């Protein structure tokens, strides 16, 4: 009897176990039944338009409720329509067998061969279950070789402590316009920064602005590096973009140079200065010095100066004891022309010199005269910047101009006569900042208050009697341009008795001042005083003497 009871219990357990297993089997859930994948390219060019397609499918037998998709673009992506890098999208319930896809578009930024990972998560709650589940997936794309040229133009050897020039050249062939570009340079030890063009931020950083396809440029740096002969110095640079406060590296450049043992040291002066800044029409006196810094004498040397054929007037050249070759615009000195080139002992120094004039008109903006010197495999380049040309014209009228003048002509002691003064300015070649025109009024002359244009920044100091036209900044125009700025103002003369019998001064000599943005030199040009003789107003000729 007891055996039958135990058998009954065992059979009952099997029945209930089977029922439980059946219930568990039909109610358990695995997140693997939701298929989630990202479709997209496995390689991409810098700035290329790409599309990620996130696909999902419910392969199970449950309705997936309250689904939410999260998509995260690869780091430093440019997202379509300025949407966020990480997007959360609520979805409708996903029924068994249902599938759908969402599209995400953007551009990838980064350096070549960098891995860019897109990520997606889909969370949901199976129907009749309280727990939430999440499926995740990723897709990796590799940045193709970046269509950017970024490289050093650096000499292979330089002398220790000697000034030299090098360049960073950049060029974009990317289809995507690149903005907010920044270049950083990492100098080797014992490098001394002197200057750069364009100007740097803290000597190591440059902003390039917008770079469209086929746009390019260069950064030119001047400096010195010290070291022992045969020592190697490594220069590094990186090009990237600032985005959302982070620097995205696009390209790197690395180049080394070697410290060489100098045998000849070349130096120079132009008009007595090693850093001379010239003006159009100036005569330039070049003095080129060469010193034997080695231990052995040098014999039968050959010195060549290649001159800039775009900025110099070769009809004015005075080659000294050198020989000028017109076809190549080259000056040559050899041992038959200069005894120091025949034999130069250790630590001895020699010199050659010549004269030439800068052209009166130039065809380019931000002009710099480049003279290349070669002597016994030693090469130097002399750069001489040319100042802007500020032009000022000061004229006086009675019968012309925007104002109606009145009073006695010729002027009479104790009686008032009004005149119009005209200032015209022009600026050529370089941009000039903080431009002002200044003059003074004699005690017998006052301003009437008439001014054209009326919004001109024109001021008068009653104590010093100085008048000032604050022009601001001027853009450099090309030679022959008639573009300029002008101003008219009216003055009133009431002559004193001691002015009787002579022409009276209306305005003193005027001067225009400013700072050249290219050469950084202060500029000043003057224009003659204006008297009642008014040479520019023929209608009142002979009516200048105070009565």
Automatic annotation (TrEMBL):
Residues 271-384 form the DUF7619 domain. Keywords: Membrane, Transmembrane, Transmembrane helix. InterPro entries: DUF7619 (IPR055353). The chain crosses the membrane at residues 5-24. Pfam families: DUF7619. This is DUF7619 domain-containing protein.
């Amino acid at each position: 009897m007891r055996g039958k009871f135990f058998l009954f219990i065992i059979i009952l357990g099997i029945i209930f176990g089977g029922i439980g297993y059946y219930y568990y089997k039909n109610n358990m859930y695995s997140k693997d039944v939701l298929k989630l994948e990202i479709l997209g390219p496995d390689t991409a060019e810098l700035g290329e338009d790409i599309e990620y397609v996130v696909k999902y499918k419910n392969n199970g037998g449950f309705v997936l409720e309250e689904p939410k998709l999260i998509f995260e673009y690869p780091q430093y992506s440019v997202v379509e329509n300025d949407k966020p890098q990480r997007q959360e999208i609520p979805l409708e319930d996903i029924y068994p067998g249902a599938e759908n896809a969402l599209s995400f578009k953007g551009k990838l930024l980064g350096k070549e061969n960098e891995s860019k990972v897109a990520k997606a998560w889909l969370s949901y709650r199976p129907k009749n279950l309280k727990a939430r589940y999440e499926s995740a997936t990723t897709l990796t794309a590799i940045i193709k070789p970046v269509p950017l040229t970024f490289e050093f133009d650096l000499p292979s050897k330089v002398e220790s402590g000697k000034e030299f020039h090098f360049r960073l050249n950049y060029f974009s062939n990317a289809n995507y316009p690149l903005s907010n570009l920044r270049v950083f340079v990492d100098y080797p030890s014992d490098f001394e920064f002197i200057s750069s063009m364009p100007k740097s931020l803290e000597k190591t950083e440059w902003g390039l602005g917008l770079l469209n396809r086929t746009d390019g440029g260069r950064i030119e740096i001047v400096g010195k590096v010290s070291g022992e002969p045969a020592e190697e110095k490594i220069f590094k640079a990186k090009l990237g973009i600032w985005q959302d406060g982070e620097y995205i590296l696009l390209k790197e450049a690395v180049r080394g140079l070697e410290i060489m043992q100098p045998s000849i040291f070349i130096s120079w002066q132009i008009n007595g200065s090693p850093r001379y800044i010239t003006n159009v029409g100036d005569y330039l006196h070049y003095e080129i010095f060469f010193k034997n810094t080695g231990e052995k004498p040098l014999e039968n040397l050959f010195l060549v100066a290649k001159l800039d054929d775009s900025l110099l007037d070769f009809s004015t050249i005075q080659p000294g004891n050198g020989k000028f070759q017109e076809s190549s615009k080259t000056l040559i000195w050899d041992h038959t022309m200069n005894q120091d080139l025949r034999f130069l002992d250790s630590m001895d120094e020699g010199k050659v010199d010549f004269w030439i004039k800068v052209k009166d008109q130039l065809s380019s903006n931000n002009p710099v005269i480049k003279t290349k010197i070669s002597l016994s495999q030693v090469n130097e380049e002399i750069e001489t910047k040319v100042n802007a040309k500020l032009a000022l014209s000061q004229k006086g009228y009675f019968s012309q101009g925007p104002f109606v003048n009145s009073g006695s002509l010729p002027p009479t002691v104790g009686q008032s006569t009004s005149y119009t003064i005209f200032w015209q300015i022009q600026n050529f070649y370089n941009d000039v900042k903080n431009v002002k025109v200044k003059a003074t009024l004699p005690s017998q002359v006052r301003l009437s208050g008439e001014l054209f244009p009326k919004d001109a920044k024109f001021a008068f100091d009653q104590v010093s009697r100085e008048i000032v036209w604050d022009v601001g900044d001027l853009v450099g125009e090309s030679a022959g341009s008639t573009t300029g700025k002008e101003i008219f103002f009216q003055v009133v003369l009431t002559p004193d008795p001691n002015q009787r019998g002579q022409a009276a001064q209306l305005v003193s000599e005027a001067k225009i001042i400013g700072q050249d943005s290219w050469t950084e030199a202060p500029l000043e040009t003057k224009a003659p005083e204006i008297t009642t003789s008014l040479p520019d107003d023929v209608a009142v000729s002979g009516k200048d003497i105070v009565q």
